[in-house]
Design goal:
CATH superfamily of the largest domain: Vaccinia Virus protein VP39
Structural class: alpha/beta
Number of helices: 11
Order of helices and strands: HEHEHHEEHEHEEHEEHHHH
Number of domains: 2
CATH architecture of the largest domain: 3-Layer(aba) Sandwich
Shape: globular
CATH topology of the largest domain: Rossmann fold
Bound molecules: S-adenosylmethionine
Number of strands: 9
Strand content: 15-25%
């Protein structure tokens, strides 16, 4: 069986922690909290995720879908990318592990129905299929190239209603400057207002940031061991939230090393999360017992390369031979602490 064989039955995850991906505690808690606050306030609206991979974040979003709401996910899955750079990004990071079928199996282990799936480039979403002002939460985590993210932000802006939230992945990662460019461009030219910054995601709204902030601060984050700081810059006010795992850097489950360059693979410590078939209860049991909770993944480190999404950066790969990367998606936790907490 090849790694991209779509005919074999995928293993069933016992918990969403068994689903490979890059969705860590601060963001899991922020998503869950902000979505739950919307529901408690009787705010209704659809959910949209651009960039789903194997479903780790989509599974949590699906937990907050209320009756009458629609959850749409958009991903290329097995399809070709629309341009060469995006294609290189796909080959570097996702191709060896990602199939639509695997996503569907993972999602159905936790939810009785699939979301609406748009298989294709996120640029398709600009055709009006997502009604204007229909969404309360949009997660942008597809291509991390500037041209794509800038387009995804425009789709999200049109889709979001009221105080709806956009969460943008990798707005500050060293290997994704295009996301940073698109995010801050939206802040300074498109009226996007920051509300919350975690080490990995930017949260903002085109609505009333004070109202969203009040929701955010209705929880005693510090009392639960999170770091929460208020930040003022360029006339903006927002909060920073981070979680330091006492057991060391939090990890995501890993994609298969086969997609990586030899240099990157040499820093690989472990394969993708093991299939949960033998240890796992049935999908039905998983739905009943484990569906609501995301847990710390078992893999001790997420290895890889900062060039995960930008396949042409051989210099990075050479550099990492001297400074082994600990996590594919973002800097190691010590680096996060240095860069995020202490500031310049
Ligand atoms: C970082 S992963 C998403 C991770 C996922 N949100 C999670 O938390 O586990 C990025 C995903 O974006 C998809 N992708 C990349 N370029 C895309 C494009 N132009 N249109 C749609 N999806 C794309 C990839 O197939 C991949 O599944």
């Amino acid at each position: 069986m090849s790694l991209t064989d779509t005919t074999a039955a995928p293993a069933v995850p016992a918990t969403s922690a068994d689903v490979p991906g890059w969705f860590f505690r601060a963001d899991r808690e922020a998503f869950g909290w902000l979505l739950a606050r919307q529901t408690a306030a009787r705010v209704t609206g659809d959910l949209l995720e651009m960039g789903t991979y194997l479903g780790r974040s989509a599974i949590l979003l699906g937990e907050h879908l209320a009756p009458g709401e629609t959850f749409t996910v958009c991903d290329l899955f097995d399809l070709d990318a629309p341009d060469d750079d995006n294609s290189a990004e796909m080959s570097m990071s996702y191709r060896s592990t990602l199939t639509r079928r695997a996503f569907e199996a993972n999602y159905l282990a936790f939810h009785p129905e699939l979301p609406v799936i748009v298989q294709g480039p996120t640029s398709l979403l600009a055709d009006g299929r997502i009604p204007a002002d229909s969404c309360r939460f949009v997660h942008v985590d597809a291509s991390h190239l500037y041209e794509h993210v800038a387009g995804d932000i425009l789709v999200a802006r049109d889709a979001l209603a009221g105080n709806g939230l956009i969460a943008l992945d990798d707005y500050r990662a060293p290997h994704t400057p295009g996301v940073a460019a698109a995010v801050w461009e939206a802040v300074f030219t498109l009226g996007l207002k920051p509300v919350l910054l975690t080490p990995e995601k930017f949260y903002g709204t085109w609505g009333d940031p004070d109202a969203v902030r009040a929701d955010l601060l209705a929880r005693d984050w510090r009392g639960e061991g999170f770091r929460l700081d208020e930040e003022h810059f360029a006339g903006q006010l927002c909060h920073r939230l981070a979680w330091d795992d006492p057991d060391g850097p939090e990890t995501g489950a890993t994609p298969a090393p086969a997609a990586r360059s030899p240099a990157a693979s040499s820093s690989t410590c472990c394969p993708p999360s093991p299939p949960a078939r033998s240890a796992a209860p049935s999908a039905r049991a998983a739905r009943g017992g484990a569906r609501a909770r995301l847990q710390t993944p078992a893999c001790p480190t997420t290895p890889g390369t900062h060039s995960r999404r930008t396949g042409r950066k051989t210099k990075y790969i050479q550099y990492e031979a001297f400074h082994p990367a600990r996590r594919e998606h973002a800097p190691d936790a010590a680096g996060l602490r240095r860069g995020f907490e202490d500031g310049p």
